Amino acid sequence: IRRKDFYAWVDYLGESYVEVVSSPDFLARISESARLRSQNIVLRDLKDYFIYVVVPARANDRVDDIEFIGQNRVKAYTVTADGKRLRLYDLERTGHGWKIVN
């Protein structure tokens, strides 16, 4: 994410995650956020979502803790300076490795 490598990021996405985040309704709803509206940004596709939402939100985050939900499912967290755990990702192991899922 920090390198802004869209194609590498997409390789880590589960199919259902891509379907949801690529949907016109989802992109329109996110485009209405105050931050994007103030910059006159309208998300058109998954790449726009990556560039204007994911990169600014996740480029400097790191995984500090992992919670095992099941044999093939984990939640990844970052821990803030004041000790608060914030969930970064839900991950599921598939036949193609670990994928970000919703």
Overview of this protein structure:
The structure is a single chain. By secondary structure, this protein is α+β, with helices and mostly antiparallel strands. Helices cover 38% and strands 27% of the residues. It has five helices and four strands, in the order αααααββββ. It has helices spanning 6-10, 15-22, 24-31, 34-38, 46-58; strands at 65-70, 73-79, 85-94, 97-101. A four-stranded antiparallel beta sheet has the order 1-2-3-4. The mean pLDDT is 95.
Helix content, binned percent: 25-40%
Indicate the mean pLDDT. Answer: 95
Discrete helix count:
5
Total beta strand runs: 4
Q: How many strands, what sense, and barrel or not for the largest sheet?
A: 4 strands, antiparallel
One letter per element, helices H and strands E, the order comes to: HHHHHEEEE
The Rg value, from CA coordinates, equals 15 Å
